């Protein structure tokens, strides 16, 4: 080991970042900036800051629209002729609602809803019923 030990590292200088906007807002920083003649930005906060504008402003309009709305919107129901046709065809084949439901791979509840008129008509189910019962249920084709 001859000679002095040398370091071939370069010095690294770590500096702090410039203060963020939030940090610069404290009174000391503002006063120091005033003294040095730097620009100071002032922002006026709005009068209704912190309130949920979206919730309060448009509600009255929507409420009024809903109050004025008188149209009764309902789904189509199974027509009486179809109910009777399904029941008649099922009785003619001497099937129960459950048996008919099993034949068309649907739940017995579906057949009950169709026969009571509570179901929303579905063309696929109606065509399955037509095939299973061997009867035309819709239209005079």
Give an overview of the whole structure.
- The structure is a single chain.
- The protein has eight helices and no strands.
- Helix 6 packs across helix 7 (108-116).
- With 141 residues, the protein is an all-alpha fold.
- Helices cover 49% and strands 0% of the residues.
- Share of residues in strands: under 5%
Radius of gyration: 40 Å
Separation, N- and C-terminal Cα atoms: 110 Å
Low-confidence stretches: none
Count the E strands: 0
The ordered string of helix (H) and strand (E) elements is HHHHHHHH
The class by helix and strand makeup works out as: mainly alpha
**Number of DSSP helices?**
8
Tell me, what's the shape?
Answer: elongated
Largest sheet: none
Helix content: 40-55%
Round the mean pLDDT to the nearest integer and report it.
79
Classify the oligomer.
single chain
What structural keywords apply?
141 residues; mainly alpha; elongated
Task: Describe the secondary-structure layout.
Layout: H1 21-24, H2 27-36, H3 53-57, H4 59-68, H5 80-92, H6 97-103, H7 108-116, H8 123-133
Short description:
This protein is an all-alpha fold. It has 8 helices and no strands.
């Amino acid at each position: 080991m001859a000679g002095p030990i040398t370091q071939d590292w370069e010095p690294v200088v770590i500096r702090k970042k410039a203060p963020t906007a939030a940090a610069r807002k404290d009174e000391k920083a503002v006063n120091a900036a005033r003294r040095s003649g730097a620009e100071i930005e002032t922002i006026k906060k709005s009068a209704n800051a912190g309130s949920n504008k979206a919730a309060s402003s448009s509600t009255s309009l929507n409420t009024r629209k809903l109050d004025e709305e008188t149209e009764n919107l309902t789904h189509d129901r199974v027509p009486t002729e179809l109910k009777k046709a399904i029941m008649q065809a099922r009785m003619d084949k001497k099937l129960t609602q459950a048996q008919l439901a099993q034949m068309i791979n649907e739940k017995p509840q579906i057949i009950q809803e169709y026969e009571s008129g509570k179901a929303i008509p579905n063309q696929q189910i109606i065509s399955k019923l037509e095939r299973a019962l061997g009867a035309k249920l819709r239209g005079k084709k």
